[in-house]
Amino acid sequence: MTESCTPPRRGPYADYFPNVIVYDHEHQKARFYDDLLLDRMVLINCMSVQDDAVRPVTQNLLQVQNLLGHRLGRDVFMYSLTIDPERDTPTVLRAFADHHGVKPGWQFLTGTSEVMTTLRDRLFAHSGGHAPGTNPESDCSMGMIRYGNESVGLWGSVATLAKPEQIVQRVAWITPRAQPEGAPRRSGPLPLTSENFGHRVNA
To answer: Which pLDDT score is estimated for 126?
Structure first.
């Protein structure tokens, strides 16, 4: 059997995003780029179980989850990256997700400290040195959501505590629009003719 020489499909920022191994709150292993970013529209935020009691970002994102409705887990995915992987194990994150009624399509991700720091550095500009349980305002990564469509290389950011409707609106900005079907049609004003010219003069 002949193996295909076609390279695997990659998005515009494949060389920028690390394809590191992470684990979700269901104890599922995934490659960050290949399994979670490529060919998906995503919303990504940083969190920790301990910090969520100080700054209830998850409560705001629960409203985003509800507004996305059936799109969540189908064409839009939400990822919450812990900044405290030593304490936020998959088991702890599972209990946290269950407590808040998190639905399929929203994954809480953890990994080694090195992996989570690498992801945080690539996705967010932050001051570093933020310890869980201290003032989250000192860390920009805790106050922003990155949203993106890696298939076409569209990325942006919005505040984690923005109105849920505003956050969901950002998803519309990166959603591909259906291409019109049929032959091209002329746009703009009608060609000037004696007939429609007369109507304009009489108007």
So the answer is: 52
